[in-house]
Write a structure and sequence with these properties.
The complex is a heterodimer of chains A (105) and B (314). Chain A contains four helices and five strands. In chain A, helix 2 links the parallel strand 2 and strand 3. Chain A is 36% helix and 29% strand. Chain A starts with a strand and ends with a helix. Chain A is globular and about 30 Å long. Chain B has 314 residues and is α/β, with parallel strands linked by helices. Chain B folds into two domains: 179 residues, FAD/NAD(P)-binding domain (3-Layer(bba) Sandwich), CATH 3.50.50.60; 118 residues, FAD/NAD(P)-binding domain. Chain B is 22% helix and 28% strand. Chain B contains six helices and 19 strands. In chain B, the strands form five sheets. In chain B, strands 1, 2, 3, 4, 5, 6 and 19 form a seven-stranded mixed sheet that branches. A five-stranded parallel sheet of chain B has the order 8-15-9-10-11. Chain B has a three-stranded antiparallel sheet with strand order 12-13-14, with no helix packed on it. In chain B, helix 1 runs parallel beside helix 2, helix 1 runs parallel beside helix 6 and helix 4 runs parallel beside helix 5. Chain B is elongated. Classes of the chains: A alpha/beta (105), B alpha/beta (314). The interface between A and B is medium-sized, with 29 and 29 residues.
Chain lengths: 105, 314
């Protein structure tokens, strides 16, 4: 899982080849911590098709807002520099995230 | 899985963890199933002051729950991370069908708790995570130095609003009546806080914005008058947090267990109408929903589970 910073987001996500998953989380976001191990498990399954990354939004607030992320957790898919899908907050269940990944393989 | 547990506990909030602790100490084989993170509602609360015996300084919901979890596991409670989608409660063996596995037990303790009640305004769903939130500890950071609105008038609304003043430059409580329900000590702190403002007799009617929340229409509950509230143009956005109560998480048991408005009915000993099925914590019909009462319910349910199992022939 590639840990992103506000400096590396553009190169690692927006300018990357193929599909990139971004796990937007934050310090003190308990639901984000709950999701993290499940996202890591999904990387084991889908990591060869999709690049898995994570961004700590507490340290990258403006970048998150520019990506239209104003509430956590968000698991998003990017392709060609655009956000093509996302699971937000209560919709970010393991089942929904996996379905989202599968539909963009 | 093949193992037949003595007790399965659904939910690892304070009710479930206390039940797990007591069940473990009774030497009952115990499994606690949790789909998210331990702690339930209290895990997303920054500060807790009213749990008897807690650390008075610096205790957060997560720190209290971490100790409860450790304690339950010390006495032998096993853990599974799974979502239960279907249950079979009739008969001597209860069956729980999860996304990952199937589980069997002699006794089921339902400690599934509750989830935040929506604000109920138009276009609320559209702005979830785009300005609307029910988790201040998750999302306060996005609104640093901006304006934030909190809907509600009870303890939670006022306490979460106070937490938000550490981040936002202004926090406005929107309450549908002209006085708060919160405890007096909490109200006093709120009124003294220079960053707090209040909109009385007001409810949120509709939200506005293109992808991100930047406006709302509010309604005066006494006059019916509608007023437009817009984000500061330099901010371009604001936060709207809802703390107006909870709905019980009991959908799994609809048409199976006696309920009242979705809350599970039990007697004083946590018995539901189904033998071998107990309920503990916020999911129950009760007068006070707090960590301390949830923990008490869990202990009682575990003790009743022990009695039930030793009296039965399973």
């Amino acid at each position: 899982m590639v840990e992103l910073t506000k400096e590396t987001f553009e190169a690692e996500v927006l300018k990357a080849e193929g599909t990139v998953l971004v796990d937007f989380y934050g310090d003190g976001c308990v639901p984000c911590q709950a999701l993290m191990p499940h996202v890591h498990a999904m990387e084991d399954t889908y990591g060869k098709d999709i690049k898995f990354t994570a961004l700590n939004t507490t340290k990258a607030r403006r970048l998150a807002i520019a990506q239209k992320v104003l509430g956590l957790p968000v698991i998003a898919l990017y392709k060609g520099g655009e956000k093509i899908a996302e699971c937000v907050k209560d919709d970010a269940t393991v089942e929904n995230i996996e379905a989202m990944i599968k539909s963009h393989l | 899985m093949d193992k037949l547990y003595d007790v399965i506990i659904l939910g690892a909030g304070p009710a479930g963890l206390a039940a797990g602790l007591y069940s473990g100490r009774y030497r009952l084989s115990t499994l606690i199933i949790e789909k998210a993170k331990d702690g339930g509602q209290i895990a997303i609360t920054d500060e807790i002051e009213n749990y008897p015996g807690q650390m008075v300084e610096g205790e957060s919901g997560p720190s209290l729950i971490a100790r409860m979890t450790q304690q339950a596991e010390k006495f032998g409670a096993e853990r599974a991370s799974d979502t239960i989608n279907k249950v079979e409660l009739e008969g001597e063996v209860k069956v729980l069908y999860g996304s990952k596995d199937t589980y069997r037990c002699k006794v089921l303790i339902i400690a599934t708790g509750a989830f935040p009640r929506p604000i109920g305004c138009k276009r609320e769903g559209e702005f979830m995570g785009k300005g609307v939130s029910f988790c201040a500890t998750c999302d306060a950071n996005f609104f640093e130095d901006m304006e934030v609105y909190v809907v509600g008038g009870g303890d939670s609304a006022v306490e979460e609003a106070m937490y938000l003043t550490k981040f936002a430059r202004k926090v406005t409580i929107i309450h549908r009546r002209d006085e708060l329900r919160a405890a007096k000590s909490i109200q006093e702190k709120a009124f003294k806080n220079p960053k707090m403002a209040f909109m009385w007799d007001t409810v949120v009617d509709e939200l506005h914005g293109d992808g991100i929340l930047d406006g709302m229409t509010v309604r005066n509950t006494k006059t019916g008058e509608l007023t437009r509230v817009d984000a500061d143009p330099d901010d371009g956005m604001f936060g709207l947090f809802g703390f107006i109560g909870y709905n019980p998480r009991s959908e799994l048991f609809t048409d199976m267990i006696d309920m009242e408005n979705g809350y599970i009915k039990t007697d004083d000993n946590m018995h539901t109408n189904i033998p071998g099925v107990f309920a503990a914590g916020d999911v129950r019909v009760k007068s006070l929903r707090q960590v301390v009462t949830a923990a008490a319910d869990g202990a009682i349910a575990a003790m009743q589970a022990e009695k039930y199992i030793s009296n039965s022939e399973i």
